[in-house]
Amino acid sequence: MSGAGMSGVGFSASALPIRPRQFWLVADATVSIGGRPIEVNSDGTFRIQMSFQDGLTDYPIMAVAADGEQSRSVHMKFTRETPSHE
Questions:
Q1: Structure confidence by residue, pLDDT tens digits, 8-50
Q2: What is the layout of strands, in order, in the sheet containing 71-80?
Q3: Neighbours of 51 (CB within 10 A)
């Protein structure tokens, strides 16, 4: 079978289907939101509860590897405006 006129590389009609596999990512890091340390569960998840008041809420989120050599950050901003019921 010729590949002429076909786009893509590495595809074959006889390729085996991809079977689902388990894959775990372990992150050994500390997490902080707005400079406040957040407790991270053993599975890498975390949960916080916060109140969103009217106005701009600014949350810089930072994760730093346990060895301090790598970090990742996300900066999230939220604006809330509660309508008045006059």
A1: 444 445 556 667 666 555 557 888 988 889 888 887 788 888 8
A2: 36-38, 29-33, 55-65, 71-80
A3: 5
Strand partners, 37: 32
Q: Report how far apart, in Å, the C-alpha atoms of 43 and of each of 32, 46, 50, 62, 66 are.
A: 17, 9, 22, 18, 15
pTM beyond cutoff 0.85: no
pLDDT at residue number 25: 53
Q: Which candidate, 35, 76, 77, places its Cα nearest to that of 56?
A: 77
Distance of CA 21 to the CA centre of its chain: 21
Q: What's the Cα-to-Cα distance from 49 to each of 31, 56, 67, 69, 71, rounded to whole Å? A: 15, 17, 28, 29, 24
- Beta strand spans in 1-86 (E): 29-33, 36-38, 55-65, 71-80
| Residue 33: its H or E element | strand 29-33
